[in-house]
Structure prediction request, 386 residues.
Amino acid sequence: MAQRSLRDALLGAAAAEFHEKGYSATGVAAIAGRAGAPKGSFYNHFPSKDALGVLVVEQYARTRGTEILLDPGSEPLDALQKHFDHLRADLAQHDYALGCLLGNFAAEVARSGTQVDTAVRDSLTVWLGALAIPVRRLADQGELPAGADPDEVARALGSAWEGAALLAKATGNAQPIDDFFAVTFPRTLGLAR
Amino acid sequence: MAQRSLRDALLGAAAAEFHEKGYSATGVAAIAGRAGAPKGSFYNHFPSKDALGVLVVEQYARTRGTEILLDPGSEPLDALQKHFDHLRADLAQHDYALGCLLGNFAAEVARSGTQVDTAVRDSLTVWLGALAIPVRRLADQGELPAGADPDEVARALGSAWEGAALLAKATGNAQPIDDFFAVTFPRTLGLAR
Prediction:
């Protein structure tokens, strides 16, 4: 296998193993094995599991549809709905069994002082910041409840989403995600009765 | 050390290690070491790390103030507020750095087919069921928004709480918990604008 494609294979294998089994439970040997590569080849491509974890987090973060939130031509409420629909479709691909990689990693590596810990925190912070953009536009249009702080609302929505993804994974069904769309999303934004 | 107190020491050490470092990253040797016990003594008391994980989950679940939700003499809204205040105080004890043990474990062991996976799922299900009790009483008193399904509302509150605990752990501050109390809790229950 060419060097470049071996590196990509290792990265893809790591993303899948980390998502399925978690960060701590996944060793370099399992990643190399899944990629069909000799274990020794791992360190030709990545200095450490920690460094590879950072790449996996960055790659995952690029698939979360953050650009939907940033589109100035969209209606802000549509953008929020489309963004969370995108995240739901991603979870549904794995029958809700794997949860959000960022949330899973956060549960494992937060405060560990590793590079992957920093990458997870940064990705979550960027995402919460992006969520605030359409929420602020809603506020500017007078479509948030009076007195609501758009940044607070955006952060509350984001953390409720992470909880729903986690509970869906834990309980093995989509109900927590359905509850998010039926209750948390509309009520947090002041849309429903 | 007497057999009984050695067992308790191992259980306490496991609870602390699991909460601080996660389930996968904690080995039997680290648990024994923290308890000041020889590694070999572990298997005199517990058949496996999985079995010990179940005991830790059950012990943790008993500290979550579920009884506050079940008190028929309380005002249901007070009960909900007191329950989440109790959970907040518990997170604050560790400066929000450790998150909820059940949520952390769920992120790691869900769908692993282990006993600890089942114990986590059962504990979360019991908790969500207990949350529904005061929410149904609110509905019976006409204090939920018209058309709101109390079970859906209770589950949405519970999963939003888990997300807030996770994000607090990930970002290293209490803001997600503050957001829960400022936004998600009142709005999900239809209390505030």
Observations:
- The first helix of chain A runs from residue 3 to 21.
- Chain A touches chain B through 50 residues (CB under 8 Å).
- DSSP finds ten helices and no strands in chain A.
- The CA atoms of residues 143 and 190 of chain A lie 8 Å apart.
